[in-house]
């Protein structure tokens, strides 16, 4: 049992965090086989990363983590850029796959690649522990810090890659540079105990907030945000009903749901909950039907629009 324990502990962080990230895609889960494929490619990418780092340290700049200057060069211009580029290329291999169909997929597949890469590192570090105490110490550090940090790095460029895949203007290069910088900074801080004791936790918090913000915005941009059976207001009969296959179940008319909804109350400016009847501001309480333009002669409807071919049809019957 003690022989296989290090191998089990080496796999646990990757399995747990891959499951956790996979569940963040709340509108449409990715094919498990494809996620595992990217995880495997991420694990294999550690080979080219090791070779490129060796070339960098041998022919470009020698590995020197004793001096601050040498450590800075090694991590910010060597380790960080090389490892992030290798993980990025693992995701680029499935960039044109039909399952890559929403912005958050860039984060999911980027995280899968990062988990694969980090898992190989976990196995190398944990299995090399001389005793059980060291093994568990390394396991905790890799579980709570290193594996999570790799996922945070991948979120920086995965978010931009997912938006770009959907045709949304976004700079993947900026995302990669951000990840490379954070990766180098993370390793640089870990190299000095005086820095890691005071700066490591704030850095992890900042990266968490950056990753969470990107994840939330990617989910807002998802074309699957309005799933089957979600309540929407029909642009014809003005009634709330469940959105099923593009038809209102109250009046039977076909319509489409717009993907990104952020409407503000014209009276108070508060962000509206599109599924409430009135503005949520207790001092305003303006009826939502007027806000989203569902009244006759109102402004353009921000919630729904008629499907093509139905825009000029007649009345849909009496309102219920």
UniProtKB/TrEMBL annotation:
GO MF terms held by the record: peptidase activity
Keyword Disulfide bond tagged: no
Keyword terms: Membrane, Transmembrane, Transmembrane helix
Keyword DNA-binding: no
Superkingdom of this protein's organism: Bacteria
Alphabetical list of Pfam families matching this protein: PrsW-protease
InterPro entries: PrsW
Ranges that cross the membrane: 6-22, 34-52, 72-95, 107-126, 132-159, 166-186, 192-211
Region Disordered, residue ranges: 300-320
Signal peptide residues on this chain, from the entry's feature table: none
PANTHER family xrefs: PROTEASE PRSW
Protein name: Protease PrsW
């Amino acid at each position: 049992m003690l022989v296989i324990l290090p191998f089990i502990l080496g796999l646990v962080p990757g399995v747990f965090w891959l499951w956790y990230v996979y569940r963040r895609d709340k509108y449409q889960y990715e094919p498990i086989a494809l996620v595992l494929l990217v995880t495997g490619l991420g694990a294999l990418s550690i080979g080219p990363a090791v070779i490129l780092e060796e070339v960098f340290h041998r022919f470009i700049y020698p590995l020197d983590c004793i001096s601050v200057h040498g450590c800075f060069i090694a991590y910010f211009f060597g380790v960080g850029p090389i490892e992030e580029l290798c993980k990025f290329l693992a995701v680029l291999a499935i960039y044109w796959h039909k399952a890559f169909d929403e912005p958050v997929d860039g984060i999911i597949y980027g995280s899968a690649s990062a988990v694969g890469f980090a898992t190989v590192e976990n196995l190398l570090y944990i299995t090399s522990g001389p005793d059980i105490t060291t093994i568990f110490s390394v396991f905790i550090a890799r579980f709570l810090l290193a594996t999570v940090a790799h996922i945070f790095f991948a979120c920086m460029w995965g978010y931009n890659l997912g938006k770009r895949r959907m045709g949304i203007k976004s700079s993947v290069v900026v995302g990669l540079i951000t990840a490379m910088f954070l990766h180098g900074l993370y390793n640089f801080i870990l190299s000095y105990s005086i820095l890691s004791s005071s700066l490591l936790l704030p850095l992890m918090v900042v990266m968490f907030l950056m990753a969470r913000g990107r994840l939330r915005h990617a989910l807002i941009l998802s074309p699957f945000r309005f799933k089957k059976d979600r309540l929407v207001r029909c642009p014809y009969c003005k009634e709330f009903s469940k959105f099923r296959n593009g038809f209102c179940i109250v009046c039977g008319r076909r319509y489409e749901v717009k993907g990104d909804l952020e409407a503000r109350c014209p009276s108070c400016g508060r962000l509206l909950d599109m599924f409430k009847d009135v503005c949520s501001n207790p001092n305003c309480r303006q009826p939502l039907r007027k806000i989203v333009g569902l009244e006759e002669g109102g402004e353009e409807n921000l919630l729904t629009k008629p499907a093509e071919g139905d825009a000029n049809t007649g009345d849909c019957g009496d309102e219920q």
